[in-house]
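Long-time lurker, first post. I've been practising inverse folding by hand and with some scripts of my own, and I keep getting stuck on stretches where the structure tokens seem ambiguous. Below is the full token string for one chain I'm working on. Before anyone asks, I'm not after the true native sequence, just a reasonable design that respects the backbone. If someone could post their per-position residues I'd love to compare against what I wrote down in my notebook.
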């Protein structure tokens, strides 16, 4: 399916996100599931998690996951979990039982990846399909910790991968694989600022682009881009 692209100022993008997550919550409820939501790091978390926390959404039955995590303690300023805890999970009063963080701080990253795959399966079943993945995108076209040209992009067996050579610091990370992301019902990518404009043009307008964000845009069931005007500046269709 072609990706949906919303271009607007951040407050309007935040409302679009609230509407999308509300719909996902209603669909999950109607299907007898608990909403499963994967949370982002970076500027997407900073811009969009505070307004999402203020939305009139009943979070009491939701399960919260992450798309990726850096190999740092949960209290470290670089922790994606820590950021979400401050901006979203704390403000909504999430219960510990709803929060499924990637425990990437130990010495064994492979064990962390295997442990997170087991957690996904225990909460969502043997073929885990997240209802909604919210994520950012790097200026090089990476999503989660899946970087352009990296062997991890070709991994189609495991749902969670250990990365020890991320070009974006810190180098050690744990990430959902493309296969895990592709199983999600909705993937929502937010991007802000002109540094993301060229890569978005390539991802959305060049059919042969092999950038991770382009693969998400072309192949997944439903992908929604939330872009501010500088990020969308080079799109011909926007
Ligand atoms: C991370 C992220 C990563 C991030 C992009 C965009 O933990 O580093 O998950 O994929 O979303 O690098 O980050 P910015 O939005 O801060 O540019």
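-- Answer (accepted) --
I ran through it position by position. Result:
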């Amino acid at each position: 399916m072609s990706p949906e692209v919303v271009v607007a100022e951040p407050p309007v993008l935040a409302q679009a996100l609230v509407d999308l997550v509300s719909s996902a919550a209603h669909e999950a409820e109607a299907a007898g599931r608990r909403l499963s939501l994967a949370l982002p790091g970076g500027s997407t978390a900073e811009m969009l998690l505070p307004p999402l926390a203020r939305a009139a959404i009943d979070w009491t039955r939701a399960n919260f996951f992450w798309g990726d995590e850096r190999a740092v303690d949960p209290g470290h300023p670089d922790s994606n979990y820590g950021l979400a805890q401050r901006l979203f999970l704390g403000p909504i009063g999430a219960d510990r039982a709803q929060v499924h963080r990637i425990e990437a701080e130990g010495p064994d990253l492979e064990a962390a990846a295997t442990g997170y795959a087991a957690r996904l399966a225990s909460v969502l079943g043997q073929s885990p399909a997240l209802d909604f993945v919210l994520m950012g995108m790097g200026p090089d076209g990476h999503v989660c910790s899946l970087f352009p040209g990296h062997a991890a992009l070709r991994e189609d067996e495991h749902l969670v991968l250990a990365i020890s050579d991320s070009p974006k610091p810190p180098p050690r990370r744990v990430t959902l694989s493309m296969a895990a992301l592709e199983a999600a019902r909705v993937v929502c990518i937010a991007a802000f600022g002109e540094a993301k404009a060229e890569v978005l043009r390539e991802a959305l307008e060049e059919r042969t682009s092999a950038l991770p964000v382009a693969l998400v845009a072309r192949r997944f069931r439903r992908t929604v881009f939330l872009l501010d005007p500088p990020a969308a500046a080079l799109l011909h269709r926007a």
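A couple of notes from the structure itself: The mean pLDDT is 97. The beta strands are 4-7, 36-39, 63-66, 68-70, 132-135, 160-163, 173-176, 186-191, 223-227. Happy to go over any region you disagree with.
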